[in-house]
């Protein structure tokens, strides 16, 4: 396999060659298992751009209905995860995230005893008022003489998410709220750890392959032993290809599409953040990665499968400002991508009503 072929197949599995992983936002998220979502507006675009026709409001509706949950899972950062997947995935990943959170918890003085005490208070508040912001909850805890300064409030809420006590609720005045987990997530069949490992590996390589075991370990937050177990459970369904001595895995059933991808990728998109060891294979040669924010921290522009620049949202026509790596060149598909983002964000509708 050549690098160009790997990139083409990866883009296809990422849902970027057809822009129609599904017509429903929650199904897009389920295809990926989890999608990084600390930048909320960009995370909505990450979902919407993989649908044939979607608007920001469509994704918002799925978040408010609870079909898409925004929570800390896999790694100690925000992710979108579908309601139907969150139980088994949280049961699998929470122990690993807790280990990664131990240092910060110790620094802020969060112990199991404190958490159990505070959780009972949070439960009462959310039982009475179903959707409360972080500010609402901290204010009420302060009234009960509970310390919430610095990172303590954040770590308390993350811990409550990991224990499946709370999850995202209905957004209130453009602010994130929390709700009781059991009020938003229905019961589902319990999976064994072994079955969960194999299922997570299957989701990862179907949505992000070709990729390496180290890539999977990074994305999932698993240790190497468990990551390897999950991969081994897929057996001969996975095949491998080597490039420069690195072994990439992908499903035998994967097919190589002919279509080239041009797109405006959001910051923290899974096309970049879903990998560690092999993230750099998507970068053009001789390009300083810091200019591109390592492909993670800055939204990037794709033209014919190649990273050609960065972009940001602006308030004037065409509502997208692009900084190309080579200003004098013309890149195919970029204008269409701009119009697509304009339509998604509602700017096209605003223009029509002026």
UniProtKB/TrEMBL annotation:
**Alphabetized Pfam families for the sequence:** AlkZ-like
Q: Does the keyword DNA-binding apply?
A: yes
Record key words, sorted: DNA-binding
Name of the protein: Winged helix DNA-binding domain-containing protein
Recorded superkingdom: Bacteria
Q: Which InterPro entries match?
A: AlkZ-like
Question: From which source organism is this entry?
Answer: Algoriphagus lacus
Q: Name one GO molecular function term.
A: DNA binding
């Amino acid at each position: 396999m050549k690098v160009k072929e790997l990139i083409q197949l990866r883009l296809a599995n990422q849902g970027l060659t057809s822009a129609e992983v599904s017509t429903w936002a929650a199904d897009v998220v389920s295809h990926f298992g989890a999608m990084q979502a600390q930048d909320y507006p960009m995370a909505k675009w990450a979902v919407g751009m993989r649908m044939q026709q979607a608007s920001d409001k469509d994704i918002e509706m799925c978040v408010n209905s609870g079909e898409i949950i925004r929570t800390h899972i896999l790694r100690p950062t925000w992710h979108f995860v579908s309601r139907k997947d969150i139980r088994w995935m949280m049961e699998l990943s929470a122990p690993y995230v807790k280990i990664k959170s131990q240092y910060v918890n110790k620094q802020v003085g969060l112990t199991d005893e404190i958490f159990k005490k505070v959780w009972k208070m949070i439960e009462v508040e959310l039982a009475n008022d179903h959707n409360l912001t972080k500010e609402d909850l901290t204010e009420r805890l302060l009234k009960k003489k509970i310390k919430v300064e610095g990172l303590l409030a954040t770590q308390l809420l993350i811990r409550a998410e990991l224990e499946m006590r709370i999850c995202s609720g209905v957004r209130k005045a453009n602010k994130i709220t929390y709700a009781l987990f059991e009020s938003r997530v229905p019961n589902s069949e319990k999976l064994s750890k072994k079955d969960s490992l194999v299922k997570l590996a299957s989701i990862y390589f179907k949505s992000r392959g070709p990729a390496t075991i180290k890539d999977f370990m990074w994305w999932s937050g698993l240790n190497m032993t468990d990551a390897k177990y999950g991969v081994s459970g897929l057996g001969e369904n996975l095949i491998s290809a080597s490039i420069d001595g690195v072994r990439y895995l992908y499903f035998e059933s994967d097919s190589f599409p002919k279509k080239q991808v041009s797109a405006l990728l959001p910051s923290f998109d899974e096309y970049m953040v879903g990998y560690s060891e092999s993230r750099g294979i998507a970068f053009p040669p001789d390009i300083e990665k810091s200019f591109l924010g390592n492909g993670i921290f800055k939204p990037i522009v794709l033209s014919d499968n190649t990273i050609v620049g960065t972009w940001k949202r602006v308030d004037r026509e065409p509502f997208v400002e692009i900084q190309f790596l080579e200003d004098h060149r013309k890149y195919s598909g970029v204008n269409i991508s701009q119009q697509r983002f304009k339509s998604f964000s509602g700017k096209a509708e605003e223009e029509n009503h002026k």
